[in-house]
């Protein structure tokens, strides 16, 4: 966490015009850079999970409120009745015994990094450029954290001779 704040502080020193984009998450109180269009807003959730958690919590609250009244209970009764009559559903893509590879980076995080890098470099950055950058960082960290022999074995497993 200290590395994050050190980096954020150094960015703000070199780019003082971004200080207006510095916000504090209303939930976890962490500082983060936001889009300049959101700079005037006060109640923002950080892109590190609080925004999604709040959105899910509010969705659940709305659903509970809707299905708690008479009209919602009737609608839920109809939906549950259809569910029993539907029979077998077709298999979901990727269920035939093979695992789908999940993306290594959550989409909201990629978009946040794209926005922040664009602010710092003062230019538009594509999603593909960010994914290439993150993949490069991931490879560099793997080498730094893994013993050399483990890295060689991992490489040989991925690309056998």
N/C terminus separation: 41 Å
* Shape summary: flat
- Which strand order spans the largest sheet, edge to edge or round the barrel? 1-2
Ranges with pLDDT <50 over ≥5 residues? none
Structural class computed from helices and strand pairing = mainly alpha
Number of helices: 6
For the largest beta-sheet, the strand count, sense and barrel status come to:
2 strands, antiparallel
Element pattern in H and E: HEEHHHHH
SS strand fraction: under 5%
Question: Mean of the pLDDT scores?
Answer: 82
User: Helical amount among residues, as a percent range?
Assistant: 55-70%
What is the CA-based Rg, rounded? Answer: 23 Å
Total strands: the figure is 2
List the topology elements.
Layout (H helix, E strand, L loop, with lengths): L1 H13 L7 E3 L6 E3 L16 H19 L1 H16 L21 H15 L5 H19 L2 H11 L3
Antiparallel strand pairs: 1-2
Question: What does the model show?
Answer:
This protein has about 160 residues and is mainly alpha-helical. It is built from 6 helices and 2 strands; from the N terminus they run αββααααα. It has a two-stranded antiparallel sheet. It is flat and about 60 Å long. The model has no long low-confidence stretch (mean pLDDT about 80).
